[in-house]
Design a protein that fits this description.
Length: 141
């Protein structure tokens, strides 16, 4: 069985959180059971969203880095939230799979919670009375 380690990146992005109208790179480090790098074969990245399979992207081997690579464009209107990137394929008699998750679109994070006091002098736990800040991978909006 092949060992497949999958990661993603985008220049300028600190986290695996990508916006619409951008492209991110999928990289897979693929090795045989003896630890040697797989340099030939057929490998694809399958992009799954909360709506199912979005697309299939072939990977190609980069001789300089020793990694299998593909580019994924995040089309406007694609489903937001978590996408799972599943890389699998074969080289000779060996096969394997590996996966990672990425986050797509604008998200909301509650950064500070400010409970408010009511007449009965207890703290409110109602989320509607908390302040929140809208954040993107590059910081608060």
């Amino acid at each position: 069985m092949l060992s497949i380690s999958v990661t993603t990146y985008q220049p300028g992005s600190q986290f695996a959180w990508y916006m619409y109208n951008t492209t991110f790179e999928v990289e897979a480090y693929i090795t045989f059971p003896n630890g040697s790098t797989v340099k030939s074969g057929s490998f694809n990245a399958y992009i799954f969203t909360t709506h199912g399979l979005l697309e299939e992207v072939p990977l190609s081997f980069n001789k300089t880095s020793g990694l299998w690579e593909a580019s994924v464009y995040v089309k406007p209107g694609s489903p937001p939230n978590v996408w799972t990137i599943l890389v699998n394929g074969t080289s000779g008699a060996y096969s394997g799979a590996g996966a990672t998750d990425v986050y797509i679109g604008v998200g909301i994070s509650i950064i500070f919670q400010y409970p408010t006091r009511t007449r009965r002098r207890y703290l409110s736990t109602s989320p509607s009375q908390w302040r929140s800040t809208l954040c993107t991978p590059t910081g608060p909006l």
